[in-house]
């Protein structure tokens, strides 16, 4: 069965309209919306609200933790995190400073956080999924003052060498 030229044009205009609407939504993300998503996400972890925490991440989100082995899909991160949430307290990250950028329809950010590990830096990318702004990619790192890098490097030297060897093989 073939569609008439008029029907084909109608379908094409409909699809283009959907794409343009989606792009407009992404380009009009406000800093207030970004702050709300990130603040709600951190708050959900502090309250051990597993459902809310993961509902604020895209289905194909990636979480990169402070350990070199922590590069997780959302599913892997959910499995890792579940025992912490089940205990009634996951982690508490309090934003100290946040920078938000939106360019060419992409929203990304970096933030300094007060955590149980001291000051950490989080950075990531947000996308609109199902008309909701969500975290698509998050990277957490421990902020190390430059004057402490040499001693930290020495502390982790053996582990790093073993892991480098593993990755190269």
Automatic annotation (TrEMBL):
The domain of life for this entry's organism is Bacteria
Q: Pfam families attached here?
A: SnoaL_3
- Residues forming the SnoaL-like domain are 34-145
Q: What is this protein called?
A: SnoaL-like domain-containing protein
Identify the InterPro entries for this entry: NTF2-like_dom_sf, SnoaL-like
């Amino acid at each position: 069965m073939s569609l008439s030229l008029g029907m084909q044009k109608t379908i094409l205009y409909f699809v283009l309209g959907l794409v343009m609407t989606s792009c407009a939504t992404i380009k009009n993300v406000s800093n207030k919306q970004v702050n709300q998503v990130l603040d709600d996400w951190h708050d959900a972890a502090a309250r051990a609200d597993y459902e809310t925490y993961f509902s604020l991440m895209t289905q194909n989100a990636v979480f990169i933790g402070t350990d070199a082995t922590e590069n997780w899909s959302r599913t892997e991160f959910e499995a890792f995190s579940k025992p912490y949430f089940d205990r009634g307290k996951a982690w508490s990250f309090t934003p100290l400073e946040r920078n938000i950028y939106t360019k060419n329809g992409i929203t990304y950010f970096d933030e300094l956080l007060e955590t149980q590990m001291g000051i950490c830096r989080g950075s990531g990318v947000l996308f609109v999924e199902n008309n909701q702004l969500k975290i698509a990619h998050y990277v957490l790192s421990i902020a190390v003052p430059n004057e402490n890098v040499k001693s930290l490097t020495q502390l982790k030297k053996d582990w790093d060498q073993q892991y480098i060897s593993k990755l190269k093989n």
